[in-house]
Fold this protein.
Amino acid sequence: MERRTQRAFVLLILAQAAHSLEEYVARLYDVFPPARFLSSLFSDDLRTGFVIANVLLISFGLWCWAVPVRRRWPSALGLAWFWAVLELTNGTIHSGLAVVRGGYFPGVLTAPLLIATGAWLSKCLRVSNSGRRH
């Protein structure tokens, strides 16, 4: 995987970290039932469960970047596409929820970061993949 693609991948994970922080500060786990449910899987205290879930998510993303992506494992391409689609979807859903709500929804301020880095990573992956076919 090219350096530019690796850079896009790690920036996507850092965008997710900023997004998770915004969600935590704005208490997403109190207003969004799926976040409440996920948090409750890790702790009876939703705040603690939310932190655990997000630390695991970001840790997994950093591991994906540090090991399979940087070492160019065969699984790297699939993992990178998974993360690109995940974060494009995440950013789009937060933006849509803010529109439906008619105002701020936890995570909407950093949603553009997820969309932009997800799109950049997707572009890098498409360029890399098209180079392999020739």
User: Anything to note?
Assistant: The chain has one domain: 3-133.
